[in-house]
Amino acid sequence: MEWDHNMKVLVAVKHVVDYNIKPRVKQDGSDVDIAGVKMGINPFDEIAVEEAVRLKERGIATEVVAVTIGKANSQDTLRHALAMGADRVVLVETDADLQPLGVAKLLKAVVEREQPRLIILGKQAIDDDLGQTGQMLAALINAGQGTFASVIEVKGDEIEVTREIDGGTDVVALKLPAVVTTDLRLNEPRFIKLPAMMMAKKKPIDNIKAADLGIDIAPRLKQLKVADPEPRKPGIKVANVAELVENLRLAEVL
Amino acid sequence: MSILILAEHDGKHIKQSTRQAVTAAGAWQLPVHVLVTGSNSAVLAKEASEIAGVAKVLHADAAHFEHPLAEDVAALLVQLGADYKVILSAHTAFSKSVLPRVAALLDVAMISDAVSITAPATYVRPIYAGNVLSTVESSDAIQVVTIRATSFAAAANGANAEVTAVNAPVSAGLSRWIKEDKTVSDRPELSSARVVVSGGRSLAERFNELLEPLAHRFGGALGATRAAVDAGFAPNDIQVGQTGTIVAPELYFAIGISGAMQHLAGMKDSKIIVAINHDPDAPIFQHADYGLVANLFDAVPELTAALSK
Fold first, then answer.
1. Contact, B199 vs B220, CB < 8 A?
2. Which residue, A200, B90, B129, B208, is most buried by CB atoms nearer than 10 A?
3. β-strands A39-41, A15-17: how paired?
4. Are the beta carbons of B8 and B90 closer than 8 angstroms?
């Protein structure tokens, strides 16, 4: 192995509404109602953890640290990361309304503390669908970024990232330390077995209070309301191809 | 104060999504400037200067912009951005990489994937894979925004704006471009095609054989579900859905597609949706304007033949 120095990987994970749950809008339209809803690790972040653990299993990464920022219940997502194979986990605890810029600033503080060589995050969270945190973190720590990664390869002091872009892929090389955000095809996360989950429950969680970091994370965006999208008007069933063609002619789209 | 749009191009032409961003910028009723980055790209700057609604083109021509890297384009935008009220682009892979970086360096929030804009700072954007629409207001002095291109019409030609050269900062050297592998196709780009013909996993090895002729009939683009892509029947870059490309064509064919939430999020704003599926209970039928329950392997060739008459 040409790799002879410390290669700590930091993975940032988010605790989100389970991807199978159809979100409900609160009656007053103020927000999505997540009370009592099943939560779990953001699927793109699960891919990030998997990639980090695989790097360790291949002898490339020396340590995998997972971090999340949020309420106390985000611990469940850290336990998930531990069960997948993360060595250590950090919770930056806050009840504040979190937005990507504030999260990136808190992650920067964690990066300064942990000094990782590689930081991996999901390309977006499936709740707010913003897709900003990784790039913002990379900017704040003045690092290169490889977004929408489908293949990564550590080569000496660089990492090569194959990225999924509009109309195909490209490959960029980033100087380490660098930030990578994951796309779906990077890997298929492992299935967690019960004993691993039980072990994960016994491991400690490093708890930092966000307020103690003295960082301004006040939200810059104010949500005024949420609403269901307008439903489409109901369509019709046609009996056969001829009837379909006739309808398309009438709709003037042929 | 003005608006700065980050243009995107394929080396030959300005992308349609940039023209859609120009239309979106109309919400502010402020002068619209367009930044064109590239190498030997005078033709592209000229093309941008002709888009109706554009008041000025900033042209950053540099060798290291032949394959623009997010780190370097962001540095340029930060250098220019302090003079602007809004920095805007379409929600493409390129801008999704660049604009969050710009926002962080300017210490402002970013609004991703806006489907409607109310000046000066209120936006509607889909969350939870398009299952909910969120209206947000930004309190920042500079608004950094990507728009969902399909929600806005493309601005046509009709201007003759001034083109001004701007100096790009030297490359920060944080990353370097190695290569790209883009699908070469004479079909229109998926995200802006007038007609999209999409297929699901059940088409299996006959995916292309069945769908290509139908797409060809319309000069349309091919699309696929995530399942069809994962199973290897279709290439990744034609995946339509929340995690793939978002489309809103005039006519969308969903062929052998069950209608998973993930896929619907990427095509439910299409003007007319045609679904063909052998399963009468497939959820896609609840979203289709015209549904046909039939064996795909018979119905699709029959449809192609009927339309080619």
1. no
2. B90
3. antiparallel
4. yes
